[in-house]
Amino acid sequence: MDSPTPAAPPTSAAPSIPAPRLPEARLPGPGSPTWEYLAPWYTLAFGWRALVLQTAHPVVAAGVRDHSSYRADPWGRLDRTLTALQRVVYASEEEIRAAALRLRRRHTRIQGTGLDGRPYTAFDPEAFAWVHATLFESVDTLHRLSGRPIPAAQRARLYQEWLAVGQAMGVRPGDLPEDVSGFDAYFADMVATRLIDTPVVRDLLAIGTEWPVPRPEALRRLPEAVWRSLHAPVFRVGARITVATLPAAYRERLGLAETDPRRAARAERRAHATLRAVRGGVTLLPRQLRYQPIAARAMRRHGHRPPVG
């Protein structure tokens, strides 16, 4: 199968994302689909998959390769990314403006020579929009595969809210489709024509098995020997779930598609069962522990009772 043509980075003057502005569409707030569906801890189950899809874009891969601390400090990198996302979603308009400004300042230095030898910047419009798009698609896919698909009307509203968040952060109007049906076609086209097999993707799929991962701070009391014995099998399962839930066309591009239909079906069933178990386990927790802290605090602040999950 021929590889798709990598997205062309800028060649002379770097394209710039316009200064973030609050969009005309209403930003998400208490009771919105965005607040409901991004709050539970189990949404983190697809963070790995979203990172793989993002770094399959050649511009994103180059930026991560050159400027990310994901190898030296994977847990810190993950925490900063998730915290930044939560602070945008569960925020006032003033806080969103401040977050957008911080994002632009932090990403201004991200530039260099891309995988094809041409210059790139973090504000490449296609890559910038793609990163935002993968988060919506991954949350949507997680809920579908874990047995709780988002109803069509809610999904359409969730997408509109996510567009508004993206525009507030600097995604240009028109760089993502205006409705969810257009998004589905856009996503399929990006997978088919833009995503490639990158060294960063291979690195992410080898995390915890081919290169070690330090103990996270939350498990600092766990003996190091126990962590060393457990982390490789756990990450191996995570990688299998990630691969099994990637778009089929991209799995083929990576050479990871299962050629035996029965084995492929078993792998998908195992992945879906694991995701259902993760979601089910989180919903068994006391209500105050089911949701990520920033989300839970925002809901309490606005007097909004968190969803059951």
UniProtKB/TrEMBL annotation:
> Domain named ER-bound oxygenase mpaB/mpaB'/Rubber oxygenase catalytic: which ranges?
35-277
Supply the InterPro entries for this chain.
MPAB/Lcp_cat_dom
**Residues covered by region (Disordered):** 1-26
Extent of the signal sequence: none
Biased composition of type Low complexity is found at 1-16
Q: Name one GO molecular function term.
A: oxidoreductase activity
Q: Tell me what this protein is called.
A: Uncharacterized protein (DUF2236 family)
